[in-house]
Structures are given as structure tokens and as C-alpha cells.
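Entry for the shared binder. Reason: the reviewer on the internal report wants the predicted structure included alongside the sequence.
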Amino acid sequence: MNILTLDFEEPLTVLIAGQKVRIVAFKTQEPGNIKFGIDAPRTVQVHREEIYQAIKLKKEQHE
């Protein structure tokens, strides 16, 4: 795992399967919380971990 230090609202660009994905962290009014903005092509699925795991489990059950 890469650990990077960035300022809030400083974009991070990564390539996933040859697709450019831009991630930006934003401060919130709630202490200890962060919001992420994610700009990705529609072909790149973006999910929170629990949603990803539910999708994965559903696919495995249908196989």
C-alpha cells in the first residue's frame, strides 16, 4: 500500500486499468471526517468497501 500525504483539495491522479481516476479529499464540518470527490470514467466502478463486498458476494452466489 502506498501512503501519500496531500493537502486538502489537492488532487491525486491514478491510473486504474489504463483509465485516469482523479481523487480529491475535502474537509467537512464534522471533526475527524473527510469527504472524497472521485472523477472517473463510467467504465470504472467506484464503491465503498462494504458495497463492493456485497456486489462481489452477490456475483459469487449467482455463479
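Summary line for the report: The chain has one domain: 12-62.
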